[in-house]
Structure formats: structure tokens, C-alpha cells
């Protein structure tokens, strides 16, 4: 496993702390035009992801990419999780990975 360039677990609230760095987020797609997707982060806020193919509306995707701004991720890798996903658990993971248990994550 390559640990030279880890990605931080983030939601929309945490994204501004990682501008210019590699991040990992889950977004529920609300609109996609084959290149740019707009959706809802696990904390309920809007995020935009560029660099994606057409993604079905209401599907959850995990994206790994570079945080370009407070609400924009440029995707390098993405995974379609389908239309069911436990957003509360993922959001809590983001909070733990950037808080009390930061040392346990890369």
C-alpha cells in the first residue's frame, strides 16, 4: 500500500481545511452533466465534483481527488456506491478522522 500521498476523509464542513490537498468524500449526486456533478455531502451541504463521467442522479459516489476550493473537488478516482449509503456513519468517520482519533488515520 502506497502511503506517500494519503487522502483525508472529509465532508463539506472539513473541505476548506484541505485546499490543494488530496481528499476523500462521499457525495449524493443531484445533478450530473458528464464532467461536473453537484450533490450533497454527508453533512448535508452542497459540493461540486469535476472530472466525473455521467453519474445517475441520487446515487452516492466516493471521490478521491484534490480539493480546489471550499466546495469543489477535482476527482482523480471515483466509486459509485449506488442509491443507498449510511451518511451518518460516514460523517462521524470524517469527524473522528480529523479530530480525536486523527493519529489513527494516514
TrEMBL record:
InterPro entries registered for this protein in UniProt: NA-bd_OB-fold, Rfa2
Top-level taxonomic group: Eukaryota
Main subcellular location: nucleus
GO terms assigned for molecular function: DNA binding
Compartments (UniProt record): Nucleus
The entry's keywords: Nucleus
One of the GO BP terms on file: DNA replication
Keyword Nucleus: yes
Gene3D superfamilies, per database record: Nucleic acid-binding proteins
Sections of the chain in a coiled coil: none
Gene Ontology, cellular component aspect: nuclear lumen
Record family assignment: Belongs to the replication factor A protein 3 family.
Protein name (database record): Uncharacterized protein
